[in-house]
Amino acid sequence: MNYFYNGHFWVNHAFDEQVKGILCEKGTIKDILYHDCDLDKDIFRVNLNGAYVFPGFIDTHTHSFEGGLYSLMIDLSEARSLDDVFNLIAEGGRQKGEYIFAWNFDENNIAEKRFPTREELDRVVADKNLVVRRIDGHSCVINTFACNNILGDDHKIYCEDPVLRGVENDKAVHWFHNNLDNELILKSYHAASQIALKGGFGTVHTMVGDADMSMGHYYLLEKHLAEFAVDFVLYPQSFNIEAALDLGAKRIGGCILADGSIGSLTAAFFQPYQGRPIFGNLYQSDQFWFDFISKAHKHDLQVGVHCIGDRAISQINNVYLRLAQSEYKDLRHQIIHCEVTDNDLLNQIAASSAVPVMQPAFDMLWGGDNGFYAQMLGPERACNMNRFKSMMDMGIPVTGSSDWYITELDIRKSLYAAMNHHNSNERLSLAEAVQIYSYNAAHLSHDEHRWGEIKIGKDADFTVLNYIPSSTQPDPDQKVLMVVKSAEVLYEDMPS
């Protein structure tokens, strides 16, 4: 048995200062002790030195393969000019193999305010496959070498426009991913698991594969799940329901796209983008989604669909609502992102029993009166974005996530963002912020009997911080000290 003591323990939605320690046996919580106890000398004691012990945190939406892969590649987040971009690629590309990924590109952060051209990329890398991905993942630029190889592989992407968006972006990125060997795929997931632990997460939901990819990636990962430091909750990123069932999957999708992104002008809205005659794109018809989701529903598969704009959210939720009214099952279908919602749409989501899987860091990065959202959509719609508090008050079981690699896989920043929404009406309390990353997250995967609370009988999963999250931006001294899964310390940064 293990005994965790001398900490502040989050029990029943708050710190219970009467708790003296947590006794664990065979990976579960055996007892919550409210008095000092002389324990058997054979019990392993873990002194928490006054730190703050939360239920094990869960991130409910990540692109862990891409995040892990890109952590091994070229990060463009610090680039402030195209010359910076080219220098980073040139330097990093010399150390990479046949496929070079440059990610976190944001044209708004560089002096030229544009993507690099294909010819410019050719001058940097001419004889390897190079992709430069925008920060939102919904547009990219590739060099001529990659373009010719993709066309030669009969993917039929339209390469005349150097900036690939929407479906063309997806085809290009899928081609890159599909050509990687198994060793690099597994190495990417191992890198992702270590990043998750450092960020305070012991459980991570992740998409596996791409929408047109075979189930080989899913099968490969499932065979190696026990090797990873964290628990991965897997979503076969596919429309192939039969293949998902053959693999024994419990869910499907995770980021199959109803629409695109705001930054790429492909998120689908009822009203146009600010100052532009553009409404974004619905990627599939209403009938397509009804056929797919109802079939998955029939076979008890939980469905997750990427929806950012109100038009896309409405399209998918209408299917969930029809199924809830005609053939209710407690499958907890997901609306991934669920960013733009007026009150009528919130009522419809509540009626459908769908679960919004949301990213507090989106508002932290792009919200506010003069932020990116307001620039793209206007201040009124920007104010009705990422409505965590409104949903919670309506009983909608919102879950928290990072969408990593899009934002950082870091519970400190996630909790801060949830508690400090630009719209003060949408700010969560500490208890609510903890809930969306613990109990609600466990509920999403039907694991509330195991995870999400410090409670007798549940898994001994804890995340230990050296501070209480608040309205203050986390500083370097505020740390994740420990991540515990099934009573085993997987990550530790305790002071000596």
Task: Produce the secondary structure layout.
Layout lengths: L1 E4 L2 E3 L4 E2 L4 E5 L2 E6 L10 E4 L4 E4 L1 E6 L1 H8 L2 E2 L6 H12 L5 E7 L12 H7 L4 E6 L4 E4 L1 H9 L11 E2 H13 L3 H17 L2 E8 L7 H8 L7 E6 L4 H6 L4 E7 L28 H13 L3 E6 L2 H17 L7 E4 L5 H10 L2 E4 L1 H7 L5 H6 L1 H5 L4 H6 L5 E2 L10 H9 L10 H7 L2 H6 L17 E4 L14 E6 L2 E5 L4
Parallel strand pairs: 1-6, 2-7, 8-14, 9-10, 10-11, 14-15, 16-17, 17-18, 18-19, 19-20
Antiparallel strand pairs: 1-4, 2-3, 4-5, 7-21, 11-12, 12-13, 21-22, 22-23
Helix pairs in contact: 1-6, 9-10, 10-11, 12-16
Model description:
This protein is an alpha/beta fold and 496 residues long. The chain has three domains: 2-50 and 474-492, no CATH class; 70-178, Diaminopimelate Epimerase, Chain A, domain 1; 182-453, TIM Barrel, CATH 3.20.20. The chain is 33% helix and 22% strand. The chain contains 18 helices and 23 strands. Strands 3-2-7-21-22-23 form a six-stranded mixed beta sheet, with no helix packed on it. The protein has a five-stranded mixed beta sheet with strand order 9-10-11-12-13, sandwiched between helices. Strand 11 (129-134) and strand 12 form a beta hairpin. Helix 10 (310-326) packs parallel to helix 11. The mean pLDDT is 93.
Key attributes of the depicted protein:
496 residues; alpha/beta; Diaminopimelate Epimerase, Chain A, domain 1; TIM Barrel; 3 domains; 6-stranded mixed beta sheet; 23 strands; 33% helix; 22% strand
